[in-house]
Amino acid sequence: MAGVLEGVRVLDFGRYIAGPYCATLLAEFGAEVIRVEKRDGSEDRFVAPVGENGEGALFLQVNRNKKCITLDPMKPEGQQVMRRLVARADVVVANLPPQTLRAMKLDYESLKAIKPDIILTTATAFGGPGPWSDRVGFDGVGQVMSGSVYMTGAGDPPYRAAVNWVDFGTALHCAFGTLAALIERGKSGRGQIVEGALLATALSFTNATLIEQAVINVNRVPTGNLGQTAAPADIYRTRDGWVLCQVTGHPLFKRWARLMGEEELWLNDPRFADDISRGNNGAVISERMARWCAERTTQEAVDTLGQAMIPTGPVLSPQQALDHPHIRAAGFMQDVDYPGLPKPAPVTRAAVRLSETPGEIASRPPTLGEHTDLVLKELGYDDAEIAALRQGGIV
């Protein structure tokens, strides 16, 4: 089955997560994506190495379904190759600082001079306009500047999340924006710039907390895993592990009180009349839930809570997540082999399913420069010209 984006050509100059994963999502739904790397491999290829040549776990996740060429775009011959690539492309993805885009001639004005209807999808650390527009940053910058890290943990020290949610959230926003730009181009024939920013993503994820602060000046402080606007909402120790339980809304609280066998106690006390009141008195409710969980195994707790239609889940290690029967049965991941791996890598599919035009992981991530000759020949270069580019250190 042809992907919904079949016929869309994407050049991926992205690095690390926000750009590459945006391009990966487009590839999973049928776009042809060409990853353009440094001749000795871009630095994001080697994060958390798992392969015999140093390829990393992050690279395997965010570069499936792509072709890969190597290129030095800072040399005149490299610029000629890039012009041919851009002339055939619909989208250029480049999460690089504005000054780097200009130096590489990947800024919108340079691209538009080659392909008037090109779409440039970019992501920066801080966005703009603003005094920090030209600064660089990673995922953690967005986390710490959005209020998220301040509110995480017990406050001393503050904790950032171990996963790069700002980067992946920016990739999702950029993929959404790219699709919107493609739809607009189909109507008007115009290209445009799609611009994401790590800080903008982080602020959008923490926005409700910021709204609450701005409107009622609540001045919240971190409370570890204990929820602040509803209860019970915490992570609880069981006889053999930990479980999370989150109760929000009065219907769920009534189910919880019924499960505790104490409806009279919890449903008639004005301290627990609504979510915010329960959040303000969350320690009292959490103490009761902690006693209930301590009497049960993790499996007993999540099964009982699940059957009562109360949101819950076990705290899993990475290996336990890989082994969990629901995660395995749901098919969220696909085993993908790669040269030099001791075993196939479990790569997550796009976390959205289309009933009629589903995405697919059709090919493994590319080895470094694997498709250089193929792509150059498609651009009109013959064998002698390709050999000369290679000898000159261009590809």
From TrEMBL:
Keyword Transferase carried by entry: yes
Highest taxon of source: Bacteria
UniProt KW Nucleotide-binding keyword: no
Keywords: Transferase
One example GO MF annotation: CoA-transferase activity
Coiled coil feature spans: none
Name of the protein described by the UniProt record: CoA transferase
